[in-house]
Design a protein that fits this description.
The complex is a heterodimer. Chain A is an all-alpha fold. Chain A has 2 domains: 2-57, no CATH class; 77-309, Orthogonal Bundle (MetI-like fold), CATH 1.10.3720. Helices cover 76% and strands 0% of the residues of chain A. Chain A is flat, with a radius of gyration of 27 Å. In chain B, helix 2 (54-67) links the parallel strand 1 and strand 2. Chain B has 2 domains: 40-164 and 320-385, D-Maltodextrin-Binding Protein, domain 2 (3-Layer(aba) Sandwich), CATH 3.40.190.10; 169-318 and 394-435, Periplasmic binding protein-like II (D-Maltodextrin-Binding Protein, domain 2), CATH 3.40.190. The N and C termini of chain B lie far apart (83 Å). In chain B, helix 8 packs across helix 17, helix 10 (264-272) crosses helix 11 and helix 17 packs antiparallel against helix 18 (418-435). By secondary structure, chain B is an alpha+beta fold. Chain B is built from 18 helices and 10 strands. Chain B is globular, with a radius of gyration of 25 Å. The chains are: A mainly alpha, B alpha+beta. The A-B interface holds A 146-149, 164-165, 167-172, 254-262, 264, 272, 275-279 and B 79, 82-83, 86, 108, 206-208, 210, 256-262, 266, 269-270, 275, 395-396, 398-399, 401-402, 406-407, 409-410, 412-413, 415-416, 432.
Chain lengths: 310, 440
Amino acid sequence: MSRLVAELPAPTGIQPVRVGRRRRSRQERLAYKILLPALGTVFIIVTIPFVLAVVQSIQAEDGSLVGFRNYARALTNPLFYDALRATGLYALIVLPAEILLGLSFALLVHRTVRRAGLRATLYVLAVLPLVVPPVAVGVVARLIYAPGYGVLNYLLQGAGIAHSEIEWLGVPILAMGSVASVDIWQWTPFVYLVLFAGLQTVPKESVEAAQVDGATWWTQFIYIELHYLRPLFLLILFFRMADVLRVFDHVFILTGGGPGTTTQLLSLYMYRIEFKFFDAGQAAALAVLVLVSISVIYSLVTRALPLERA
Amino acid sequence: MQRITRREFVKRTAVTSAAFTSLPAFLAACGESTTTSNKPSKLVIAAVQGNEDGPLKKVAPNYKSQTGIDVEIVEFPYDQLFEKLVTTFQANGSSYDLCMMDDPWMPKFGTMGALQPLDSNFGFTRDSDVPTVVYDVGTWPPPHGPVPPSEQGKTQHLYGITIVGNVEMFMYRSDKSSAPTTWDDVLTNAGKYNAPNFYGYVIRGKATNPVSSDSLPILWSFGGNVFDDNWKVQLDSTDSITAVDFLTRKLKKFAEPGAENIDAADRSRLMAIGQAYQSTVWPGEITGIVEDPSVSQVKGKVAYIPIPQGASGKGLGMMGNWLLGIPKGSKNGSAAADFIKWMLKTANMRNYVAQGGIPIRKSILNDASLASANPYFAALAKSFDAVPNWRPRTDQWNAVETIYGTQMNAAVAGQVTPQAAMTKAAADVRTLMKTAGYPS
């Protein structure tokens, strides 16, 4: 009873503030306690390795400090720019293709499929490519594109479209297209799922009102739905750009980076610097540079597509 | 039922958790006591997954039945095995008592000082029934050829014993022609037998290691080289460029489409389904594909010979031996050495051969009774006698191979001329070697 009395508003105004402050403090302590395991895990698996990478990037093999020499070596290596060019081209192919295809599928299903069962089936089908290990995807893709026994050439020749074997993995532009097609197949469903979920948040009243006013398919999309999808585009762009920098498995299996260095993406290049050249300093410098670059890109994308606009 | 307070509950939970979490440490401690004894209960081998360790897995149970020591084989794909071993050695870990090593890895491991010497520590001596080059390839610093600057003056020791006697050889369809003796014969036959859906020559041209392995025997046989005896880069020498031109232009005219993406399995498949006339070959491909009746349509129609002669007048095969070594961190060195000795015994090696193993004993390779089941044994024995080349003994080899194999791949794809490819490769290798302290 005395506690209840103590918590009652006091006319002086001093007591409630003290009680309120004590209550907030207790809640904050609880919040920190709850967050501690998550923050601790992030610290252990993200912060510590990053700090170690930064330290390694300014060290020589014998552990002596060499300043920015590893960064200079990384930035003056012509193979780095080949890898950067290849990664840029890869991103230019896969990102627009995945976003356009994913958006098209999402709009198509959102507007035409009404039955819950069919929507659930499409959802499951879309999830499937995402859960297949990239190595398995690479192996299957090799069965499609490989010279000699590739299914695609077999079909094209059988249908009379091609008269001789097309070297999908041997001609530079085709090789890039082939490895990109695998990415598009695997990750378009991710874009579809995210955008489809976004479309479900568009208020029906707004859409119906627009339709009553005679809005076309296109204007409905541009003036209503696009506004709800904008933050999701940011999310997709960020995730997919980060993924493009990590692409490794299917490229390694399909082309091994060839022909020449045509498909030697940044991740494959970094792998070779670390595990073939055993140049840990240069590999760490590259890793830090990539991290800084992606942070800059993320910040630019955030500015271009501010969340507040939604 | 007795109720407990929250404080008591937390206390009991903590005690129980502590007991459970300390259990693995307790068990590990128990294990520790067995491993430090003279006769361990188990030896752990880090092995490469594939044809190379298959026979080892089959004979390992015999070792247990004879000695009571279990042999656990932990398999890794090729690249991962190398990375795993390097990181284990860097940490001086004791996870593995033995490790399988591809012979180009020896310079890296030798330079790192990662292995226990088999001669001084465990009394290994050379056996006259085993080709000298087999011991040489497991010796560090290398007994012949250029020695890395950091290793000069060090005492030579034997660190690895070959258990897979791999030497790159040559295969051709013996039902169609006699054996080529020179690379010119190879080119002539390639043109003669090339036909729609039948390729006169198969190039294993996939980027980095595959095309490097495929092309080096040709490079050497033409008098080219990666380095001379003083580590001077020779990739842009006239002989080297001629060899690359021979492979990527002359032979490529008769090669399979998409050669720049062909690896060993694809090459053997083309031979096995009767769509190719000739190529280089590793023993593992012979037993695993070309002579395997369950997948091959050409069993008995393919013959195996040492690498044909090039312009240098020599035919130089390439070693790709798999060795067994004992990591420095192993606590069971003596028992591990006993296992290697057991593997080398003639009777055990015969059993190993019966399980598909590739032997190193001359008496087994030249045993006529084994020839029909192993049609490449005679060629392998001759290849050993001809003293095949090993890949340059430098811990930078992985990087050199990546540079060379990338440019070779570009040349096979027709992206660059042979001259441009080798000029670029030579320049990049020179930069690499200079940075690593070599006089390139």
